[in-house]
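Quick start: read one record
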Amino acid sequence: MADPKTDTPDISSIPIRVLVVDDDESHAQAVAESLERINCECKVAGSGAAGSQLISSESWDVVVTDLQMADVDGIEILRHAKEELPDAEVIVLTGHGSITSAVTAMQHGAYTYLTKPLDIGELRSAVEKSAARLRLIRRNAELRRSLEERFGFEGVIGNSPQMHRIIEILKNVSPTDTTILIHGENGTGKELVAKAIHQNSPRKSKPFVPLNISALPDSILESELFGHEQGAFTGASGRRVGKFEYANGGTLFLDEVGEMPMDTQVKLLRVLEDRKITRLGANDEMEINVRLVAATNANLKKMVDDGSFREDLYYRLNVVNIELPPLRERPVDIPLLMEHFLKELSKKTGREVEGFSRTARRALLAYHWPGNIRQLRNTIESMLVMDTDGLLDVDGLPSDILPLVTNDDSPGDGDGVSGADSLVGRPLDEVEKFYISRALEITDGNREETARLLAIGERTLYRKIKEYDLKK
């Protein structure tokens, strides 16, 4: 049965799968029957070898194993379960209770240690506590999945139509080895997207290696990329492993690839074609298995036309293109990002606050953010560390954002007056209509976000929209 509030499965109704491993078959059956009465789905293995095989072939939430068995003992079952089923809990039973065996079992990750003759109530309690932990893990995973489906993808956050399209692209390309080119202004989160691609790929257990081309002098760029041997050039006092070699098996992220010199572009193209590198000063080629994700804020197509970027390399890099929109083009995402950064930075700085004041929130939503997501994050961090009263208010706003607190657009009556001062002396309903209209513009018509911005209920907002004829 799905939970109507979250539209996710009712985790508590899913039976806990329990494997009982004991070469005393009658005892194992009695244990299984007692656990089936508390909504457990049980299977019995009549030997350690049989239990080990079932652990390898099936998924279990809880393993209940006897310690002393003729073939494979309980400690070996415990080790095997922790390797194959890291989230499963293991309960060890024995009729030879001792401090030594208890310590050994706990050191290898046992959830608990129970002695025979077995207290069924104690066993049920241990399994139920294990089940509660597992259900919590499942619920958190399910909620995370739901939130990602609605708002993001492994840290790439957004609820705007543009970000929904990008997230769908990321879901499709991440499991592949396709080369990707990310284009966007500075601060739009190009490296974050590259990390998300890596973390959701089969390469996630291997290195993610970023390299900013524009941060390196041309003289050392090739050494950084391909590595060098001792004596390859003046100052090369020893062998150096390059980024391609270091990222072998993983993902190499080349940021600002448009800044790469033409001669290095030729060598990069050869690497992409042959999947081999040669360290500077070496003769032997080395095969590499690296996924390349490149990023730029430049118009590479125009650079190709100008002759400053190789056309063949451009098409090699641009197999899949991801265009990240600037923050000013997706204002509906700003409230979501604000809450995300506030939560993240509160944890990082150890500062707990109530949130943003209405005035500060309005100013942050109205700002055009030339520095994009990076600027928004830095602004919120600055407000947080400078806060003294537990509420992020206008006193913590940077000077370039502060004018937006008072210099808002006027309702427009043709008298040439602009700013909030133009509202002075106007009827209250006209002022209210103006601010609701502006809030709807800021949130791109998102009524849920508008209600939160104005700190009013959604029903109240709907009524006001109808009252002031703001449906358009």
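Residues 120-151 form the longest helix (32 residues).
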